[in-house]
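Input protein
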Amino acid sequence: MEGSFISDGKAAFVTYDELVSASMFEEEILPPSQCTDWVFDLPKGEYSCKVSMMFDPNEMSEDEMIESKSIHFHIQFKLLSSEATKLKSIPWYNFESNI
């Protein structure tokens, strides 16, 4: 899986469930208080991120995955720009024609 994001100087790992919950409920804050050890410093800037799963989920039960001491994911960050890209317009949308 690949994507990009803008760091304000900190980043955190969260679970899919935490992300969904935060998108549904305004009072949900990321990262959750029980996961503060998943927060790390990442200098301000725009980054690409690539996450690779290091096992086949069809060959391992959830309990085996949780109890395993092996590496589950490989995560790569690449600094794209030390300044976030600031769009002046949305390239694929023409506001003039929709007024």
Observations:
- The chain is about 15% helix and 35% strand.
